[in-house]
Automatic annotation (TrEMBL):
Name listed for the protein in its UniProt record: Sugar ABC transporter ATP-binding protein
ATP-binding in keyword set: yes
Key words, A-Z: ATP-binding, Nucleotide-binding
Organism superkingdom: Bacteria
Length: 509
């Protein structure tokens, strides 16, 4: 089938102080095509999108859309041209209702000039049910899960009569079931001739949904490929500019039977979310929690970290019963928590990379309240190198780093505190394939140094590669406790889907 080009960007250049983010990049997309934009963290993907949609002005280059030259100065102008974007950071208004969000900035008015809420409600309902989503549109957006919020953002994008919809990492916070719903929506848009730019670090998704792939590396165009001409290894090699290695299962024998327990949670209840779950983690053990969104994984981690108080249940730290009233107490015991939502809980955007990395560490490296600058810098440089954090300097504001690189700084923050237990909620969310293997290696290094890890991940393969033991959860209960060969995606998936309880022969406990 011949491609009918709808968007053509030519010779795009964009610099930030100290960084040339886009160097002479060409990019074109055809009608009715799902086009992946791929590249490592910091390659320039989001910047290219922001230049296209008027968030950033470009230094030079041309943009042709639907046969005419455009130069939008804002997202609103881009929208008027027919380009709608769902950003990496959701830009909706959490305290307003679902329907208000869908019509944000282009509210429908009645003939008296006041808001026509009835029509907006009905319109929102229809848009969402077209996407197979039947929710109450009168509820404030923040009451819904990230996944549903994402769908609302998409409904909003579609409702603007967009000809091109851009999705910057739309699936990073969705679980497998929700990804299916999103893909249905994408296919529907595609069949209406709408073009889609799809950014994701999940390769299998790209191979499933995309027809074309454009690859960027260090701000430069590597090439534009039809998906049939690529396989996963080739795609990764092109992205990272060297031979790709397959990520492998790190451990297949369970070696923790005689090891001391670091922490044990017993019969934990919290509202309707946790219903009598218990877990234990040995010293140096990497324990995985698998389950769909809403299965209670994050709540369980929050209880352990003193973020929420359980209604019932006991927690033991080194066999001693503890009552964790707040995260400070958990940190004092020796826990670290790398959160899922870096925007809300994690980063201090107005502070530098160095400050963000060492903020929790200051009591340890300061002497009589004076921070050892040298030590702070040594540590920061160590992790910048180790995790290949892409930043012009450690004094760059973290808000200026690409999404994936911000995530790496957060990981480093907890790692450099040398805790006994690190809770990681979706640790490699938004992290590129190359860096993923480095983070996985680091997890194993921590584990062999006796540091325990509680790992929550929606990517089952990630749990499969890294964990000594995996608990499968649903509705706040444990469905399975798996070790060795039983840690495999097929069994985990079928356990999540079934109602029965499964356990490895000896269990890990
Ligand atoms: N506002 C800004 N100020 C300074 N530098 C920036 C700014 N925005 C992006 N950069 C830099 O431009 C480069 C490209 O960043 P960009 O966000 O486009 O990467 P990306 O490909 O989207 O990465 P990721 O996969 O991590 O989201 C990075 O080196 C980043 O640090
Ligand atoms: Mg990005």
């Amino acid at each position: 089938m011949e491609r009918k080009i709808i968007l053509e960007m030519k010779n795009i250049e964009k610099s930030f102080p100290g960084v040339k983010a886009l160097k002479n990049v060409d990019f074109s997309v055809a009608e009715g095509e799902v086009h992946a934009l791929m590249g490592e963290n910091g390659a320039g993907k989001s910047t290219l999108i922001k230049v296209l949609t008027g968030v950033y002005g470009k230094d030079s280059g041309d943009i042709m859309f639907q046969g005419k030259s455009i130069n939008p100065k804002s997202t609103l102008e881009a929208q008027e041209e027919g380009i709608s974007t769902i950003y990496q950071e959701l830009n909706l208004s959490p305290f307003q209702t679902v329907y208000e969000n869908i019509y944000l900035g282009r509210e429908i008015k009645n003939k008296y000039g006041s808001l026509d809420r009835k029509q907006m409600r009905a319109g929102a309902k229809e848009l969402l049910s077209d996407m197979g989503l039947h929710i109450d549109v009168d509820v404030p957006l923040r009451k819904y899960s990230t996944a549903i919020q994402q769908m609302v953002a998409i409904a909003r994008a579609v409702s603007t009569k967009a000809k091109l919809v851009i999705m910057d990492e739309p699936t990073s916070s969705l679980d497998t079931k929700e990804v299916r719903v999103l893909f249905d929506v994408i296919n529907r848009l595609k069949s209406q001739g709408i073009a889609i730019i799809f950014i994701s670090h999940r390769l299998d998704e790209v191979f499933e949904i995309c027809g074309h792939v454009t690859i960027l590396k260090d701000g430069e165009l590597v090439g534009d490929y039809s998906i049939e001409d690529l396989d996963q290894m080739k795609l990764v090699s092109l992205m990272i500019g060297r031979e790709a290695v397959t990520l492998e299962r790190k451990k297949d024998k369970y070696t923790f039977r005689d090891v001391d327990e670091l922490v044990k949670m017993e019969d934990i209840h919290f509202e309707t979310k946790l219903n009598g779950i218990g877990i234990s983690i040995k010293k140096g053990e990497v324990l995985g929690l698998a389950g769909l969104l809403g299965s209670g994984r994050t709540e369980l981690a929050n209880v352990l970290f003193g973020e929420i108080r359980p209604d019932k249940g006991n927690i033991y730290w080194l066999d001693k019963k503890v009552s964790l009233k707040n995260p400070q107490m958990a940190i004092k015991l020796g826990m670290g928590f790398c959160t899922e939502d870096r925007k809300v809980e994690g980063i201090f955007p107005e502070m530098t990379v160095k400050e963000n990395m060492t903020v929790a560490l200051l009591p340890q490296i300061s002497k009589h309240g004076i921070i050892s600058n040298k030590k702070e810098e040594e540590l920061t440089q160590y992790y910048i190198d180790k995790l290949r954090i892409k930043t012009p300097s450690m004094d760059q504001l973290i808000g200026n780093l690409s999404g994936g690189n911000q995530q790496k700084v957060l990981l480093a923050r907890w790692m450099c505190m040398n805790p006994d237990l690190i809770i990681m909620d979706e640790p490699t969310r938004g992290i590129d394939v190359g860096a993923k293997s480095e983070i996985e290696d680091l997890i194993q290094e921590l584990s062999s140094n006796g540091i325990s890890i509680l790992m929550i991940s929606s990517e089952i393969e990630e749990l499969e590669r890294n964990c000594d033991r995996v608990y499968v959860m649903r509705e706040g209960k444990e469905l399975a406790d798996l070790i060795e060969d039983d840690i495999n995606s097929d069994l985990i998936m079928s356990t999540i889907a079934s109602a029965g309880k499964v356990s490895s022969k000896e269990g890990g406990k």
